[in-house]
Write a structure and sequence with these properties.
The complex is a heterodimer of chains A (118) and B (109). Chain A is an all-beta fold. Chain A is built from no helices and 11 strands. In chain A, strand 5 and strand 6 form a beta hairpin. With 109 residues, chain B is mostly beta strands. Chain B contains no helices and 11 strands. The termini of chain B are far apart. The chains are: A mainly beta (118), B mainly beta (109).
Amino acid sequence: QVQLQESGPGLVKPSETLSLTCVVSGYSLTNGYYWGWIRQPPGKGLEWIGSIYHSGSTHYNPSLKSRVTMSVDTSKNQFSLKLRSVTAADTAVYFCARDVKAAGWDYWGQGNLVTVSS
Amino acid sequence: DIVLTQSPGTLSLSPGERATLSCRASETVSSNYLAWYQQKPGQAPRILIHGASSRATGIPDRFSGSGSGTDFTLTISRLEPEDFAVYYCQQYGSSPRITFGQGTRLEIK
């Protein structure tokens, strides 16, 4: 059974960098598929942040591209998100998930609430 | 960007009734790469339909998807109590941008 688990601080100060990691179990990242991040502000809808392949190839949401960096560590079977220069508008639940391209996003983490506040 | 508009915003129905949810795209969705997700409070979204009409693994057959081009529909044939949730459509054919609709809330009447 494929499982994803996000981890990272729940509180980040404005202008600082939000950092999250997603550990994958039950499936090796090197077996294929993209892996990505989606966020959801409280009470609002879903926003795609970006996707990464085990080779390190990335696709980012153009609206966030200037502030986002995603990376992958196949030795730990995990991938990470960094979002720079955060503001209150970046407060959201951040989900990691498997991006099966032709078949949508099939496995998700439980979500990690990140609040941006001083 | 492809903008997805879902309607209605809220749908009030009773268990046993049929639900029809709409998702309209601002331009053609490539290869019918359109998915539907169900989200319950405090949970991650769960994929129901991909490729516009293919049920994901383990999804009951009361859920069905249809449509092509710019107009897509999710139908729940007979509502069960556990089906009351928020539903999102997603297009993933317009690389590199993946977009979601704003959601339809399905509530008990």
